[in-house]
Amino acid sequence: MAIIVDLDLQLAKRGLSVGEFADAVGITPANIAVLKNGRAKAVRFTTLDAICRTLGCQPGDVLRWVPDDGADDDS
């Protein structure tokens, strides 16, 4: 299973830089980079709430699930 973070797409749509976005959300640009690069192990609901409020979007606009190869097997 892979969770894909589409922050780059959302930031580009709104013309926001990582620094502006990080300030608006209240987390560091380094933590935004961890999210954007798919290295985050978890996201707090409060952070997800701030991201969605800042971007005016739903969580599904930022996060999506992509099955791994072979995920169709019932074993």
TrEMBL record:
Q: Which Pfam families match?
A: HTH_26
InterPro entries cross-referenced by the UniProt entry: Cro/C1-type_HTH, Lambda_DNA-bd_dom_sf
Q: Which SUPFAM superfamilies match?
A: lambda repressor-like DNA-binding domains (SSF47413)
> Any signal peptide, and if so, which residues?
none
Show where the HTH cro/C1-type domain sits: 13-62
Give the protein name, as stated in the record: Helix-turn-helix domain-containing protein
